[in-house]
Design a protein that fits this description.
Layout: H1 2-13, H2 26-62, H3 75-91, H4 104-117, E1 118-122, E2 128-135, H5 139-149, E3 153-156, E4 161-166, H6 169-179, H7 188-201, H8 221-229, E5 230-236, E6 241-250, E7 252-253, E8 258-259, H9 261-271, E9 275-278, E10 287-292, H10 295-307, H11 314-329, H12 336-346
Antiparallel strand pairs: 1-2, 2-4, 3-4, 5-6, 6-10, 7-8, 9-10
Helix pairs in contact: 1-2, 2-3, 4-8, 11-12
Length: 364
Amino acid sequence: MIGTAFSVLIRLELSSPGVQVLQGDHQLFNVIISAHAFIMIFFMVMPGLVGGFGNYFLPIHCGSPDMANNKKLNLNKWFTSIRNFTYSTNRSQPNKNLNKYTGQYLQNYLAGLIEGDGYISITNQNRVILGITFNIKDRPLAEKFLNILGKGSIVTRSGNSIELRFSSKKTLCNIIELINGKFRTPKIDQLFKLIDWMNKQHSMDIKKLPLNDSSILNDSWLSGFIDADGHFYIRNSLKQIICKFSLEQRMIYPKTNESYNFILNKICLALNVKLHSRIREGQKDSYYIIRVENQNSIKLLIDYLDIYPLLSSKHLDFLCWKIVFNEIINKNHMTVEGRKIVFEQKGQMNDSRIFFNWDHLKNL
């Protein structure tokens, strides 16, 4: 207010030629000019820029929360929203690895795969790790996902498995964007914790979308879940040849004590089978088991996997399994030629497989 008053006096004095309001006191005029400059610079501009805007912009540079209790004055929040909007706009034009085949398919498939064989962990050092476990023979698939999703690493684990891990902020944002709203099991608890961590640590505003309640057979989620926990096998004896499929999952999600019964029953209804259980006496976990054995249910499963194919080496097992089932449907399986086909296909499945063809990953 004082600086503005001095400015008004200066402008009044200069408004016309000759002496005005200061009555010819040129020394007073020079003092008013100097006082106006000192007041405006040192008592307004510098406190405003350094103390005021510095309070807003420094946290933006540091990536830390600012003015958390006042959303209207929280410039960090506004700039983060603009940045996220720009990022989303850029994501609407996917990178070269995310073609049309990997759009909705990849989103739902990845959600199912993570819910089956993945985990999201926040360490004691406040570091996030999103990991997906693969059989060591599925390393080409893990490398493909690493190429598609962004910065990460593949770690060899004890036993016959590897783990694909992601910790980069940008990659985690990519994955959240893909799978948010696609989860179907109690494991969504881990996704929500990841979103909360991202919102807090990076001042983001990612919304937590609820469980996907759409039809099981209308997207690729079940394909990802099968690649994690499913198993194709053939029972071959002198009296009968039967194609079977099983999917096994623990009964209770331990972190929230929620049951998997709802989602597994939904899968059973879609495939027209019953849900079984396996109680392990003296063991920590008991399991639900989905068994597909009757021909009508197998046809439903084959029709589904023809539309939403598997991506791991189980895709190759499925193709062998499907060939044997067609022999059964055509009633050729008990003939000499039919048994030969069954024997050959079974000898290429699961642990017996020594040759792997990954051509089905070329479309990713």
